[in-house]
Amino acid sequence: MGQTLNNGSLLQGGRYKILSVLGQGGFGITYLAMQSGLMRKVAVKEFFMKEMCSREESSSHVTLGTEGARETVERYREKFLKEARNIARFNHPNIVRTIDVFEENGTAYYVMEYAPCGSLSDKVKKEGYLSEPVATRYIKQIASALDYIHRHKMTHLDVKPSNIMLNEKGETVLIDFGLAKQYDSKSGGQTSSTPVGISEGYAPTEQYMLGGVGTFSPETDVYALGATFFKLLTGNTPPNASFIDNNGIPVDQLVARGVSQQAIAAICQAMKSRKRDRLKTAWAFIAALSRDTTVSNVKDDTLVEATVVEVDKPIEKMWVNRQEREKVRKTTQPVKKENNAWLWALMGVVCVALAVILVYAREGDTRSLAEDEGEVVENVIENVEENTSQEEPEPIKKYNVNGVSFDMVLVKGGTFEMGATPEQDKPDEREIPAHEVTLTNDYYIGKTEVTQNLWQAVMGSNPSHFRGGALPVECVSWNDCQEFIMKLNELTGEQFRLPSEAEWEFAARGGNKSNHYQYSGSNNIDDVAWYDGNSGGMTQPVAQMSSNELGIYDMSGNVAEWCQDREGLYSSTSQVNPTGPNSGSRRIDRGGCWYTGKWSSRLTNRYWRSSDFNRNYLGLRLGLSK
After folding, report:
1. How many CB atoms are closer than 10 A to CB 33?
2. Model-level pTM?
């Protein structure tokens, strides 16, 4: 038997018969089943932690992969049951209904109504994108559901198209309350310690932060509601919160679909980077959708000001790449009739200008309206030009210390699954569970391991067992590396350091260019790594094998590499810029080496050792903040 129940399996003495698997995540498996008494199809969700649970071959019984996982599994099993009870309390047409909850096969289940028409994600995938009237109808239904749970002092925290199903009437049903948090009605503090999950593109900045959703705030779900609306209207998943914080919402995608100004304004207000600047409730989002933001229908000063806030500020960050910004800069030139998308963009700028003019006029400003209009448009264009003038970081930084040169490769920040993802073979407990990590800042990492030449140039000595200037330095402890880096910084004026473990793994995976290989740069270890099958029993000169997707060498072999972090097991909780535990005597090292086998060369393999430990298979690679 595999991880899932077999089709035809019976639960609760035959009350439910499994028909097929609908989906599987990290914490559960959802099945389509037949409820025998009423002869109707239902959805049955089974608690099953993919990384820690297994199923007996001869039965349906769920067992633990290791005894050490028991406490973690039991904690999340209780959370699973709490999710079912939370949903069972609700009575709203756009929230999934819980029919039954029970325990069996050494695990827990709950039964829900079945929505047969798939998810909004499925619908968008099939149709490309939805018309504004259709998308608006769906989004209003989900806003109503969110308003309902918010009044019960709960946040969903995972609103996205794949968690919105369509029933037989074509109405939306919000599902998957696995990340939901309940809050105290008086203090507003959370009453549960459930992990914070991240759905890339739909989670705002605070959801990436430790304690960021520790107090009740509907604005977090409002952000996801706006992001979901964006997806329905464009067919594209919004950029992650870090990108939007730095570059703004890609409004040009909405404009290209002919989306109305009020819908664009509502999305911009819902997806503000700072929580305090967002629309405060789900109904406020619906009210913004109903508001007419065209200048011809402005009826009072309040609406004029709202229009300026909702449209003017996003326009400064509207276009997310230089080519589009250049088009805006040239809007003083005649616009070709066939370029309808950019005609809409220009109209948006003019609307802002006219709105501001009306504010001045109502306040008795005596300046010429023509002067005001020209000034507003010029200011918008100047802001765009300022954004285009920002310099891109150097892809490679070159250094020379006492005649020895070395390169540092730029790694752009991003989000990835850290730990034993599916391509990794038979991971041990140090590599699980895989968990989402976001690195919000760009950084540099050594193109190669630190060579003996560089160590000699800085320290005046060479501790290595295998001698050769182009060989990686080894027989260095974590403490030795700190002394080397301190002296290197004195010579260069830079702030070199060891990379964090997360930075190391993200770079080894190829960063945002990752092809999800088992080793750093390939699924064929002999292409990219020196290990016991090809090393000849010693280290080899750096950069002789193929590089990975970022042009970095030897991250899966030659010598293992110290990281800055202290030892610690992984958590399933999503993290932002993790740096490991704050205490502990042992430090992490990563990467395979010349004398270990293929398994140890996998890019998720990790060890920890005393900070004064040194061997002829252990070296370092430099890190540097941008």
Report:
1. 26
2. 0.47
